[in-house]
Amino acid sequence: MNPSGKVRHVQVPGRQSGQRLDNFLLRELRGLPRSRIYRLIRRGEVRVNRGRCKPETRLEEGDQVRIPPHAGHQGAAPAAASEKLKQSLIECVLFEDEAMLVLDKPAGLPVHGGSGIRIGLIEALRQTRPEWLEAELAHRLDRETSGCLVIAKQAGFLRHLQRQLRTGAVNKRYLALVQGHWPQALHLIDQPLRKNRLSSGERMVKPDPDGKAAKTRFQIKQQFVNATLLEIQLETGRTHQIRVHCQHAGHPIIGDRKYHLTTPAIPHKHLTLHAQKISFHPTPTTPQSTFEAQLPPHFAQLLKSLREHPSLP
């Protein structure tokens, strides 16, 4: 049980206004797996202002969140970030001002801890510099995906950017290298997706007519003998959306060991999916800004090899 064995009522501070309930609880219940947090919400044991709620409920300053006593792993603080990880995060900064950070997230680094991960990017970031102590994720990238990731340093900016995300005002462009020849006429996949969680806690996403709406736009950048380089634009932001839509089209992303169900024509150790650009309005009164992250070395080297040796593999 929790240390007091009693229900807690926590008032949402101003700096966390606009945050999703599940992310709020991840900080309040450090070390508790996300799947357990979702279960508490689903059962109605977590309440906001005495009412039932959902993981995606947006909190406002002054809201009262009911947090029940719960059995299981308790209050474990994130692991200490190594000096190497801290320095890596500093070197990943593409832009910083008083309200936000834009990072070039390395492939392989999860954006947050949980489900057996003691520390993620956001926990390490808060340990790196005093001015990053209250940093919050403004959106997410998969662990294996590299590229542009926006971090909020101020609650006002977090609310502002998430409002743009909800209304489609944020433009996110990805580069992906997929197996085979992508069809010239395939520019849009409109296929609902349903998220499932296995008994191991692993998330798997599948196309499902009863799932959540998911739309992805594709443009061919370059074709090789056994691969295609695509520029991809998301119209929705579902978990693993690009990876599942590519697999659904019969052209899984090279290096995707989760959704590549057959022996790959071009084997590769890392996922070749990169969040290349993100565009948004930094404030309600400023023009749209675009931030860009260069391809990671493993991706750039594979493209170089394909261009120099067209008959690969």
Mind explaining what this structure looks like?
The protein is of the alpha+beta class and 313 residues long. The chain has three domains: 8-67, Structural Genomics Hypothetical 15.5 Kd Protein In mrcA-pckA Intergenic Region, Chain A, CATH 3.10.290.10; 83-160, Pseudouridine synthase (2-Layer Sandwich), CATH 3.30.2350; 170-308, Pseudouridine synthase (2-Layer Sandwich), CATH 3.30.2350. It is 21% helix and 26% strand. It is built from seven helices and 15 strands. The protein has helices at 21-28, 34-42, 83-91, 121-128, 155-167, 241-248, 297-308, and strands spanning 8-11, 47-48, 64-67, 93-96, 100-105, 136-137, 146-152, 171-179, 188-190, 193-197, 203-207, 215-223, 227-234, 273-280, 289-292. The strands form three sheets. Strands 4, 5, 6, 7, 8, 9, 12, 13, 14 and 15 form a ten-stranded mixed beta sheet that branches. α3 crosses α4. It is globular and about 65 Å long. 33% of the residues are buried.
Order of helices and strands: EHHEEHEEHEEHEEEEEEHEEH
Helicity range: 10-25%
Structural class: alpha+beta
Mean pLDDT: 89
> What is the number of strand segments?
15
Please describe the biggest sheet, giving its number of strands, its sense, and whether it closes into a barrel: 10 strands, mixed
Helical segment tally?
7
User: What's the shape?
Assistant: globular
Report strand %: 25-35%
Write down the domain tally: 3
> What is the CATH T-level topology of the largest domain?
Pseudouridine synthase
Q: Uncertain spans, ≥5 residues at pLDDT below 50?
A: none
Q: Do you know the CATH architecture of the largest domain?
A: 2-Layer Sandwich
> What's the alpha carbon Rg, rounded to whole Å?
20 Å
CATH homology superfamily name of the largest domain: Pseudouridine synthase
CATH class of the largest domain: Alpha Beta
Separation of termini?
Answer: 55 Å
